[in-house]
Structures are given as C-alpha cells and as structure tokens.
Amino acid sequence: MKDRLRPMYCDHLSVMRGKILPESRIATGSTRFAQPCYAVHFDKDLIVDAPGTRCLEGLPDMELHWDEKDIRAGWQEATQVVIGDLYEQDGAPLPLDGRYVLKQAVSAWQTRGLTPRVGIELECFAFTKNEEGQLVPYDTPGAVVYGIGPFNDPLGFTDAIWKKAELMGFSLDLMTSEYDTPQFEFTLHFADAVEAVDDIVLFRQMAREVAFEHGVILTFGPKPIPDKGGSGMHINLSFVDDQGQNAIASGDRGGIDNMNELAKGCVAGWMKHHKGMSALIAPTVLSYARLQPASMSGYWCNWGGDHRGVTTRVSGQGGDKARLEHRMADASANPYAAVATVLRAALLGVEGQYELPPAETGDCFMSNDAETGTADNLADALDDLAADKPLAAAVGQVYCDHHIHMKRSEVEKTAALEGDALRDWYIWFV
C-alpha cells in the first residue's frame, strides 16, 4: 500500500475530524471540509443558527491547510497524519478554529518577549462490552494507584499505546494507573504551546483507536462513572524569555514564597476569571459532576503550593523546572481552546496587575478558605462566561458566542438524561 495522508482538525466538540488522502495529494497542502461541521452536535443534530457556521448562507466550504514539515508517521498502516489550520474561502483564518485561537493567545504573549511552554496530563477511564453488549468498566480487580502491569491492564492495551506513541515520536513523560479503577494517566513532556497541544490531540485519538482495537472503549470524559473520581486535563505552564530562560522561575527554589511578579500575575488572572473560564475548559454537562468541593478537581477559586486540593498549584521546583499547574480543565474541552483560555486569563492578570488573593490554608476536604467555586452546572457556567466580557473578548468573541450557543443546546438535549444514558451520549466521542 502506498503512503496515505490523514489530515485532521479538532472541532468545537473536541472531536477529531479528517479525511484519508492518496499519496498524490500529500504535497498539495490543503483540503476542504464543510464549514457547517461546526454546527453539528454529538447527536448529529445540525444547529443551523449557530454563529459563525454559515449554515444559513449556503453551507459553504472551509479549507484546511497544513505544513509539510508537520506531517508525521501515523498509527495506521501506511498512513501519515497531520494537523492543519482552518481558513474561510476568502483566506481569513476561521475564528471557530481552536488552533487559531491558541496561536493568537501565544502571539499575544510573544509580544511581551515570552513564549508559552505547556505540559498536559490526561486522565481517562476504560470500558469494555459485556455479553449483552452493554458498556461496563474494564475489569481490573488487582489495580492500585501508581500500579503497572497485568493487574492494572490485563489486556495490555496501554503497552500497545506506548509502543505506537514511540513509533510516532511522541515524548511521553509517564504512564500509570490512577486512584480509581479502571482509570489511567498519560503525560507528555513540555513543549511550545501549539506543538504540545498538537501532540495531545493526536495522542488522544491514537490511544482511543488503539484501545478500541483491543476491545476497550477509552474515554477522556470528565465523569463517566458517578461513584468514582473524575478525569482531568491538567495544564502545566511556564514561559521562555528572549534569553531562553524560564521566566516563571525566581532562582533555584520554587514554591509560593519564591514567586516572581509574572507568576503572581498569572495566578491572579486565573483567580479573577475562575468562573468565566469553566464553561470553556470544562464544557460538558458531566464536567460539573466532576467539579465538586472536596474532589481535587479545580472547583474552588483558590491556589497554593504542593496542594492537590487547590485549582492552581505552584510547583516547589525552581530553575528550568519551575511551572504553574491549572487543574480545572477536562479533555471534553477542545485542548487548543482550553490552553488558550488559560493563557488569556493569565495575561489579563499580568497586564491588569490584578491583586493576588492569599494562598489557600485549608485542607480542602474538611475546611477551605475559598468561598467561591465554579458554577454547579453547565447552564450557569455558560452564563458566567457570557458575563465575563474581558475574558470572552480575549479568547475570541466569535469563538465564545458560538461555544455558548452550541453548549446551551447541549444543556437542553441532555436535560432528561442521567446515569448510563448521559454517559453514553458522550462516551463514543470524548
């Protein structure tokens, strides 16, 4: 078989869409998709009045453009993969494209002489089908937190994922099992923001497809099992200055007592825009089953040092390893838009010289200083985003208007669903 190309983009639902093109098309650098794909919901319903989708203007095409240097080996036989940028027919970048939104956020930081570096942690749950064809949690009775090997993964699908990741050139930092079973974590190394998210969306798609070939349905959704913990997408952030130094660092020591003004400004931005951010980075109904008090999930508007009960952790490491960790997001969010949101809120804090509130002193199980959390449900979170006009304008007003419209439809569509029915509305896609 000749080499084929699978060009892709990550859409508003965090779903990867693409095509298979023959070898003769690889060098063309572009292909077309229907712009109204951005009006499609999880249930295949077309929301024709969704802003920016042009459903009521003849349903025109948009173009995906890729750079040949970004093409890499794929996980299917004789198939290469690439992520591209979306453009409208007049050549303007598509404002609904999360990758464009992230590139704009990166550019805003670069005008200050700082390049964002990002490391992302992905958590996920595994399911299989029983004899009746029903989805059930993957049977791992011997699994433990930080466990590895056949007791945690008797089918060995995680080893298959690791091997494919190495073949594709991903820089994996770790793979392990999480506190709940059957839950797993995959972490990739730090990279420049767009590169890091390109890797994450490709890795996530590869992992889901490889797992499926082993009879496992792998979901990165936020809360697929009601009585278990949730799955997050923790975003670790630092900046490189013009001299190649870590600009978050304040010497060789980290921690909350050694924060420089840049770090303080970023955290202050996240605190001020805590409620507005949630609808963008925790954007599904099940996200708010995960975002609860005493759940180590990013519910509270608080920050601290080496403290898993807070939304923002300040690393105790200094120098090149200094970083900030934002813990609210989950992978039902478009990862490009999620990282862009984190970057934009941080920049608002730096540029606006926001006041940093005191660090959390409570344990966040029995007590906490924080009095404000995220909304309790997606509908209220969307209202919080609509009310946070500085954040919406910074992320991209067209992007946010479309997001709010589509997600309000999602609230209506899922209102009568609960339990397995609500889980299954999402599980095949995220």
Give structural notes:
With 430 residues, the protein is of the alpha+beta class. It has two domains: 4-94, Ubiquitin-like (UB roll), CATH 3.10.20.70; 105-426, 2-Layer Sandwich (Creatine Kinase, Chain A, domain 2), CATH 3.30.590.10. It is 30% helix and 19% strand. It is built from eleven helices and 17 strands. Strands 8, 9, 10, 11, 12, 13, 14, 15, 16 and 17 form a ten-stranded mixed β-sheet that branches. A four-stranded mixed β-sheet has the order 2-1-6-5. A hairpin with a 5-residue loop joins β5 and β6. It is globular, with a radius of gyration of 21 Å. The mean pLDDT is 96.
How many helical stretches? 11
Q: Characterize the overall form.
A: globular
Tell me the structural class.
alpha+beta
How many extended strands? 17
Task: Please trace the helix and strand order, writing H or E for each element.
Answer: EEEEEEEHEEHEEEHEEHHHEEEHHHHH
The CATH class of the largest domain turns out to be Alpha Beta
* Share of helical residues: 25-40%
End-to-end Cα distance: 31 Å
What topology does this entry show?
Layout: E1 4-10, E2 16-18, E3 30-34, E4 61-65, E5 72-73, E6 79-83, E7 85-87, H1 98-110, E8 115-129, E9 135-137, H2 157-168, E10 172-177, E11 183-188, E12 191-192, H3 193-213, E13 217-219, E14 233-240, H4 261-272, H5 274-281, H6 287-290, E15 303-304, E16 312-314, E17 324-326, H7 335-351, H8 378-387, H9 389-395, H10 397-413, H11 419-426
Parallel strand pairs: 1-6, 15-16
Antiparallel strand pairs: 1-2, 3-4, 4-7, 5-6, 8-9, 8-11, 8-12, 8-13, 8-14, 10-11, 14-17, 16-17
Helix pairs in contact: 1-7, 2-3, 4-7, 5-8, 7-9, 8-10, 9-10
